[in-house]
Amino acid sequence: MSISVMILTKNNSSSLTDTIDSVIDIADSIIVVDTGSEDDSPVIASKKGAEVFFFNWNDNFSDARNFALKHIHTEWVLVLDSDEILTKFDMDVFQSISSNPRVGGINLKIANNLSNDNNNSEIRTHRYTRLFRNCDKFRFEGRIHEQIKHSIEAAGFETVESDFCINHYGYSKKSISRYERNIRLLKSDLLDSPYDDYKKFHLAETYFVDGNYEEAELIYKKIQYSDELSTSQSEMVQLRLAQTALRNDDLERVEELTKSASNDEQNEALRLYVRGTAFLLRQNYPDALICFETCLRIASPSISRKDLESALSLTKRISK
Fold first, then answer.
1. Whole-angstrom Cα distance, residue 160 to residue 62?
2. What is the C-alpha separation between 257 and 235, in angstroms, rounded?
3. Which pLDDT score, from 0 to 100, does residue 108 have?
4. Single pTM value for the model
5. What is the DSSP letter of 70?
6. CA distance 19 to 30
7. Helix H segments across the chain?
């Protein structure tokens, strides 16, 4: 099965070469759509053998991606951003999956590289449909956090899971302009779909990650019991509210919100870390130790190992 790689870029000359290099061995063609670069991103892409097209940015990622689809003529499409790298892909596995005519899309693991206030490296993963058949019925939806999965399934195809992985580095450095853009696009999407809890979740997450905890908390409370969110997202809402309660020294509330264990490794690590911190502050050292030690054994990249080891060391020291 032939694959085209679709890449959107704007002023990403520092990372675009690595993005293209990560897929050059598996791609039958590489389509780069530039949405208004003022650097030499288009030149870099062209020199690396990509076909370069230009899109007049209109605050809509789906429009840009659907424009790119018009220039793709292979059987399958792999979607990357220009601050991402394909780190795990097996062509034999892909050929096996894609040979099933019922399969229209393949979900990949996206590993988001984050930096916290202490400059510790953290990784948060989620799964997204980034590889799919080139079909006229498949179209992206949403101004931001755009998805193609809905149209794939609406056309009668299945989406399946894979072990393929993409590393995303766009959140490793704070960008005021990116934050403001994302807030603006999410709010615009919600004007069109005011009851869409999925979009509310992403708006709250954007506020929270940027440190606007009050705005985030207001939204999390509105979707706390939503049945539109995935299990992982619903758990994250509870955990974000627990983190907010921890910031407000409402330790009993933290314990209440973190009672239930999660099957999601990342969520469970965060739950144990937040719960352990509440126990530590309440001088419940035995339970704090259990939480921190269990969290350390999970070894989730979503929790800074440096912070976790510091909390564990402090608990052991003051509990003697």
1. 22
2. 10
3. 98
4. 0.83
5. T
6. 11
7. 13-21, 41-47, 61-69, 91-98, 149-154, 176-192, 197-210, 213-222, 231-247, 251-257, 265-281, 285-298, 305-318
What is the token pair recorded at 36? 């208004």
Going by the DSSP 8-state scheme, the letter that residue 141 receives in this structure is B
Per-residue CA distances from 36 to 11, 18, 59, 193 (Å): 8, 20, 12, 28
178-219 pLDDT, tens digit per residue, is 888 899 999 999 998 899 999 999 999 999 988 999 999 999
Token representation of residue 18: 């690595």
Q: How many residues does the chain have?
A: 320
At residue 200, the pLDDT reads 96
Q: How far apart are CA 287 and CA 173, in angstroms?
A: 35
Buried b (16+ CB within 10 A) or exposed e, 29-41: bbbbbbbebeeeb
Long-range contact list for 274-282, CB < 8 A, 24+ apart?
Answer: 274/239, 274/242, 274/243, 274/246, 275/242, 276/311, 276/315, 277/246, 277/311, 278/246, 278/251, 278/254, 279/255, 280/311, 280/314, 280/315, 281/249, 281/251, 282/251
Alpha-carbon distance 164 to 315, whole Å?
Answer: 39
Output the six-digit token pair for 154: 């609406």
Nearest partner of 308 among 275, 282, 284, judged by Cα: 275
Is there a contact between 134 and 69 (Cβ–Cβ < 8 Å)? yes
Cα-based angle 271, 274, 279 (whole degrees, multiple of 5): 115
- State which residues of the chain have pLDDT below 50: 116-119
Q: Which domains does the chain have, with CATH numbers?
A: 3-168 (3.90.550.10), 176-318 (1.25.40.10)
Q: Decide if 121 contacts 131 (C-beta within 8 A).
A: no
The pair of structure tokens assigned to 318 is 């003051």
Structure token pair of residue 150? 């809905």
Q: How far apart are CA 69 and CA 151, in angstroms?
A: 14
